[in-house]
Amino acid sequence: MSTATTHAEEVHTHAHDHDHEHEHHELNFWTKYIFSTDHKTIAKQYLISGILWAFIGGSLSIIFRLQLGFPEMQLDWLRPILGEWIDEGGKLDKEFYLALVTMHGTIMVFFVLTAGLSGTFSNFLIPLQIGARDMASGFINMLSYWFFFLSSMIMFASLFIETGPASGGWVIYPPLSALPQAMPGSGLGMTMWLTAMTFFIVSSLMGGINYICTVINLRTRGMTFTKMPLTIWSFFFTAILGLLSFPVLLSAALLLIFDRSFGTSFYLSEIYIQGQALPNMGGSPILYQHLFWFLGHPEVYIVLLPALGMTSEIIATNSRKPIFGYRAMIGSMMGITVLAFIVWAHHMFVTGMNPFLGSVFMFLTLIIAVPSAVKAFNYITTLWKGNLIFTPAMLFSIGLVSLFISGGVTGIILGNSALDINLHDTYFVVAHFHLVMGAASFFGLMAGVYHWFPKMFGRMMNKTLGYIHFWFTFVGVYMVFFPMHYIGIAGFPRRYYSFTAVGNDGAAAFTNMNAFISIAAIITFTAQAIFAWNFFYSIFKGKKAPQNPWNSTTLEWTTPVEPGHGNWEGEIPAVYRWPYDYSKPGSDVDFIPQNVPFSATKSSNLPEEEAEIAKENEIEGLLGAQNESYNR
Amino acid sequence: MFYLIGLLSVIFFALAISVISKSIKLNKSLAASDYTDEALDGSNNANAYGMIIFWALGTIAGVWSFMVAKPDFLPIAASEHGLRTDSMFWISMAVVTLAFFFTNTLLLFFAFKYRYNKDRKATFYPVNHKLELIWTVIPAIVMAILVFTGWRTWRDITSQAPSDAVVIEITGHQFGWYVRYAGNDDNQLGNYNYKLIDETNNIGIDFTDKNSFDDFTATELHLPKGKPVLLKIHAQDVLHSVYLPFHRVKMDAVPGMPTKFWFTPNMSTDEMRAKLGKKDFNYKLNCTEICGRGHFGMAITVFVDEPEDYAKWCAEQKPFLATNPTYLAKVPDNLKMKASKYIPAEPVAVDSAAAPAEEAVSVN
């Protein structure tokens, strides 16, 4: 502890005699909170938007869970909200059911787990953890949020139009999504979906370019790539994934827009619909699927990697132990990043794609399970012989590892094309991806919020409420998604309004289990109110946060409790060591921050670290160059 | 049961609310101690025990729920490849369940065992290459075995259909399936063209192809037991997907791109009825690709007949051309002779004599 405190004091005294030029002009309300170029404010904007979206996306799922769990239920009481979407019989409209499924998926995948997770924490943590004053381009960063905001508004508005929002599933496969006559949701709702997603992609690319540039160029002196926290590595890989794959989704969307509005035939061929033969020839719906999943699969890792990165950090901190296999963790993430691009067609085994292609993608898919397994084992070994402090963030991180494993193992079955024949598009798939990417990433998001809340708002969240929130959510998520595997094994297809037409007495089978799942979903969803209350209450009324509440080694905790514009009041600290010096033998404190030089910790240095002392002067010598780069 | 669940949910809900309100109260009264930055608080042990309780209850719930759900699983596969994929599925399931149980147990058990203790210091244990090598290689080997067996099965399933396979065409549309058989005289389906679709000829059978003449259509799918069946699949409007759950058959129906799937049914409808003890059981063909409002109800009945029953059923079916003789007009002149033998004799012809005559004139 002593080293950290003295250092913090040092920084403070430094701050007084160093008047930073940024503090000269006073920011007004608009430039401070709304059109802010400060990465911390933008991160908070993303976070709060993400939380709002999560509640919207979650409530959509509750509505369709009511239909699935209680097919007989009268839903007249929802008419004040849903209006005409509840038909005269008091039942949910069948098309609106599909719209709910579609929008739930879209919102959760893109608006919550991509923008809310990656947008929040990449923005917040990259400059703070690598020791930068802000993002490489604050202006582009601001634009990124406002494009996201525009996209959000369009997507949100589409929920309220008369023909309903997009309803062809979140994958919006044409021709269903291309032909307004196929379903009402493919009219204006789909146009708005495509417009919103176009802006979303623009936003995501601006963000991604910024993250990559910042990580490469703005690391503080001494922060080599191998001294970066795993969070930063994960954000870096995520940004690369997004940068390379989102443009492909944009092209898929553009071609779909052409097909819809300008009479082209990229995806359309030989269609007879509503008594009319369309003139389109030569297009291929499969082309769309390839383009979509070329983003769609990396997207899984875009939402998952940041969660895994933050979890690495949180588990190490709260186990008071270095993360096990730091380099193996980086290696696995790198492996996942590369492989993520070449497994997309495992979503398409039974689309009529050439079976040989299926074989190739089966091999590639099951290779990606290896780095994932390595990560899981490394997390478990990090816990081994640790000294575990169960902060809410730690609980959610352990929950993430559990869900990541539980959802991940079924991927081995679904990635096997022979087994996928029967399981494709059944509830088995729904259970699989909700556990491994939905719930796991959501747990990562929650862990991140609980862990970095003190840095974001200078206040602490209530721990007890955090514990309650965790247990409700953890138990609830398993109760929702574990039984879904059974329904999938029984061959129940997904996106079914009801199971009356399924063979095997479908209507009768699993009624109780479906009801159980729905109740569990409602409870889990309701429990999120605990979080919302805790979050918003603590922003204003939480206890003031200490300098370093979790006794963490990374740089963000060397900034003032409420960092201002530019993050550090004095010089940016230099970095001398990796971020995981917890419980180091020979040290009288159980953590040594990254900015503590080896020369100050002679008693705990490992033999090879003695050699690092010689480089300290060299690292210090870079200060001038570093300051120079900000004044240019 | 419904009321029980309703009651249960109300109780849970009330419980949740009471916990929330209580904790809010707690939060207010204990605000000072609750926000301490001390690592150790009383909840740390409680959470650690929570992990182990979760493990115990979760294990029980997992096993119990499996037993409860098992009777509703799909019964033994009714096709030859299905038997193979089923056994592979359960072997893979056993492997992954083992991995799932083992790793989750370690995770939760370690979380419990290594809970904070102020007298203990965590072990500085950053890396062990041997361990990492072990758990990279073992999953890789297991995966390789699973992939290899999976690939062999997949290769066999997707191989070329035997030349004697019964050819049946399935056409998906919003929201139903058209079935067309290759006919009793040749085992060849005639061409189709979506531009030829009209109210009667709803598949768009092309009568310029002589193979179409004996093709017959049906509203249900009949399959011969023990014979390879080749489904030729396409869609008219949007994507659909042919799903025969009991036969472990699934293949998308794509507009503009014919797809196919061949398999051998090995259990007749009657046998499955006897096995399940349900007299009114029927196989179904469902749709598993979202296709619009009626997606969930897009099903037809499937009958798997003994080969002789199937042959008998086929013999009873009349070619499309026989039931709709007006389409003779679409047949090119050089094939008219061949086609007209499918047109029933006088009695029917008299009834609808006017129509074909008129059309014949207009074609000429």
TrEMBL record, chain A:
<feature type="transmembrane region" description="Helical">
    <location>
        <begin position="324"/>
        <end position="344"/>
    </location>
</feature>
<keyword id="KW-0812">Transmembrane</keyword>
<dbReference type="InterPro" id="IPR036927">
    <property type="entry name" value="Cyt_c_oxase-like_su1_sf"/>
</dbReference>
<feature type="transmembrane region" description="Helical">
    <location>
        <begin position="193"/>
        <end position="218"/>
    </location>
</feature>
<feature type="region of interest" description="Disordered">
    <location>
        <begin position="1"/>
        <end position="20"/>
    </location>
</feature>
<comment type="similarity">
    <text>Belongs to the heme-copper respiratory oxidase family.</text>
</comment>
<feature type="transmembrane region" description="Helical">
    <location>
        <begin position="96"/>
        <end position="126"/>
    </location>
</feature>
<feature type="transmembrane region" description="Helical">
    <location>
        <begin position="515"/>
        <end position="537"/>
    </location>
</feature>
<keyword id="KW-1133">Transmembrane helix</keyword>
<feature type="transmembrane region" description="Helical">
    <location>
        <begin position="291"/>
        <end position="312"/>
    </location>
</feature>
<feature type="region of interest" description="Disordered">
    <location>
        <begin position="600"/>
        <end position="632"/>
    </location>
</feature>
<keyword id="KW-0249">Electron transport</keyword>
<dbReference type="InterPro" id="IPR023616">
    <property type="entry name" value="Cyt_c_oxase-like_su1_dom"/>
</dbReference>
<feature type="transmembrane region" description="Helical">
    <location>
        <begin position="426"/>
        <end position="453"/>
    </location>
</feature>
<keyword id="KW-0813">Transport</keyword>
<feature type="transmembrane region" description="Helical">
    <location>
        <begin position="389"/>
        <end position="414"/>
    </location>
</feature>
<keyword id="KW-0479">Metal-binding</keyword>
<dbReference type="Pfam" id="PF00115">
    <property type="entry name" value="COX1"/>
</dbReference>
<feature type="transmembrane region" description="Helical">
    <location>
        <begin position="356"/>
        <end position="377"/>
    </location>
</feature>
<dbReference type="InterPro" id="IPR000883">
    <property type="entry name" value="Cyt_C_Oxase_1"/>
</dbReference>
<feature type="transmembrane region" description="Helical">
    <location>
        <begin position="230"/>
        <end position="258"/>
    </location>
</feature>
<feature type="domain" description="Cytochrome oxidase subunit I profile">
    <location>
        <begin position="24"/>
        <end position="576"/>
    </location>
</feature>
<keyword id="KW-0349">Heme</keyword>
<dbReference type="InterPro" id="IPR023615">
    <property type="entry name" value="Cyt_c_Oxase_su1_BS"/>
</dbReference>
<keyword id="KW-0408">Iron</keyword>
<feature type="transmembrane region" description="Helical">
    <location>
        <begin position="138"/>
        <end position="161"/>
    </location>
</feature>
<keyword id="KW-0472">Membrane</keyword>
<protein>
    <submittedName>
        <fullName>Cbb3-type cytochrome c oxidase subunit I</fullName>
    </submittedName>
</protein>
<feature type="compositionally biased region" description="Basic and acidic residues">
    <location>
        <begin position="7"/>
        <end position="20"/>
    </location>
</feature>
<keyword id="KW-0679">Respiratory chain</keyword>
<feature type="transmembrane region" description="Helical">
    <location>
        <begin position="465"/>
        <end position="487"/>
    </location>
</feature>
<feature type="transmembrane region" description="Helical">
    <location>
        <begin position="46"/>
        <end position="68"/>
    </location>
</feature>
